[in-house]
């Protein structure tokens, strides 16, 4: 008799993630449908207050997505005369391309800087070396959910008079000494793309900041440049977090601490159990400083490892296969040589990671890794 193979371990089963809160999500959706107000209403105001309080900042402004959150921060600084077209923004060379796109969308110049090889996050020593006469800002990305070295970057930003902006799209809740991602820089952008640690059931994003003037500017820019109906002080855009997503996010925010803790527990098990000469597991974060949006291992034989895991019914992904400076969108950066970054993109592999990954699934991932043949 042939026994059926057990179902594959999915990379991330969003249906299941949201099924855990289905009753509350459906009640929240019903509340919005019945209220009859779908844009810029009470759900958004309530979510903005709750998310700001949770992050420990004065302001959160809901926007359409994470890319817009980052782009609107930079746009607001241009509107306020703090940044000017052609200014340089230091960005990590190994980030998701949205970090770069936010910079170039504002006719600012992204200057890629290589990461620390162990943490995947931008290297403060290299940041300082990259500062030139047109450098005006540093964009820190808390890649994979791990806080960048905000203390070192904050020191550099202060010494050189630069803005420090966080791309916190992967790091909701990552904390250091009681401070959370989104509260370290002058401003931060979050994404609520469904697969993020705090995920909507569609697109969404937010800007956080303690700066009242910046907050008011972003608030106007996301709504046609209008602070008052039919009065347009600036050439804004339409990028608002809608009532339905805000209501759903209010539900999911209440479970985020527990879900991040579950991710941290899975990461600890993975790190302790996956001991293999051809697989490098990520270094431990400072306690609470990593919320494990992704659990990224490295292997010189990455493609073979990926195929081996797939054969064992374990679905993995690569974040990211091609670095921004090698993308068709950035021919002007194609000449750069960024060896650490290029090697990382050849070696990284993201294992299944989700708050609701069961013990049996975690064990299957581990067993599949341990059975990867050593040549
Ligand atoms: C997801 C992500 C973004 C973009 O967020 P969207 O909501 O998809 O626009 C930006 N930066 C990083 C690091 C991300 O992971």
Automatic annotation (TrEMBL):
InterPro entries tied to this protein: DegT/StrS_aminotransferase (IPR000653), PyrdxlP-dep_Trfase (IPR015424), PyrdxlP-dep_Trfase_major (IPR015421), PyrdxlP-dep_Trfase_small (IPR015422)
An example molecular function term from Gene Ontology annotations: pyridoxal phosphate binding
Superkingdom to which the source organism belongs: Bacteria
Residues in coiled coil: 227-261
Catalytic residue list: 196
Keyword terms, alphabetized: Aminotransferase, Coiled coil, Pyridoxal phosphate, Transferase
N6-(pyridoxal phosphate)lysine modified-residue sites: 196
GO biological process, one term: polysaccharide biosynthetic process
Pfam annotation, one family: DegT_DnrJ_EryC1
Family to which this protein belongs: Belongs to the DegT/DnrJ/EryC1 family.
Official protein name in the record: DegT/DnrJ/EryC1/StrS family aminotransferase
């Amino acid at each position: 008799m042939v026994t059926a193979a057990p179902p594959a371990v999915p990379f991330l089963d969003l249906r299941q993630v949201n099924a855990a809160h289905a009753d509350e999500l459906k009640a929240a959706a019903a509340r919005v449908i019945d209220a009859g107000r779908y844009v810029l209403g009470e759900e958004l105001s309530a979510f903005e207050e709750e998310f700001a309080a949770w992050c420990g900042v004065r302001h959160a402004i809901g926007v359409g997505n994470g890319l817009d959150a980052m782009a609107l921060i930079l746009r607001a600084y241009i509107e306020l005369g703090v940044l000017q077209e052609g200014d340089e923004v230091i960005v990590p060379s190994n980030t998701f391309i949205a970090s770069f796109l936010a910079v170039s969308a504002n006719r600012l110049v992204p200057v890629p800087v290589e990461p620390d090889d162990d943490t995947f996050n931008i290297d403060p020593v290299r940041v300082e070396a990259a500062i030139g006469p047109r450098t005006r800002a540093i964009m820190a990305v808390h890649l994979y959910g791990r806080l960048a070295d905000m203390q070192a970057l904050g020191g550099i930003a202060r010494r050189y008079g630069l803005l420090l902006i966080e791309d916190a799209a992967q790091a909701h809740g990552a904390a250091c000494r009681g401070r959370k991602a989104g509260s370290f820089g002058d401003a931060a952008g979050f994404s609520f793309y469904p697969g993020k640690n705090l995920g909507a059931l569609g697109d969404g994003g937010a800007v956080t900041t303690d700066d009242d003037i910046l907050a008011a500017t972003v608030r106007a820019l996301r709504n046609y440049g209008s602070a008052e109906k039919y009065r347009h002080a600036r050439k804004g855009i339409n990028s608002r977090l809608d009532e339905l997503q805000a209501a759903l996010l209010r539900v999911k925010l209440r479970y985020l601490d527990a879900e991040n803790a579950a991710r941290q527990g899975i990461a600890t098990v993975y790190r302790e159990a996956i001991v293999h000469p051809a697989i490098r597991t990520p270094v431990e974060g400072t306690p609470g400083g990593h919320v494990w949006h992704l659990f990224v291992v490295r292997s010189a034989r990455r493609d073979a490892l990926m195929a081996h895991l797939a054969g064992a019914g374990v679905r993995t992904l690569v974040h990211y296969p091609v670095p921004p400076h090698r993308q068709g969108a950035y021919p002007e950066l194609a000449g750069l040589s960024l060896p650490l970054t290029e090697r990382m993109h050849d070696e990284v592999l993201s294992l299944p990671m989700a708050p609701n990954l069961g013990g049996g699934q975690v064990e299957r991932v581990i067993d599949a890794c341990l059975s990867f043949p050593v040549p």
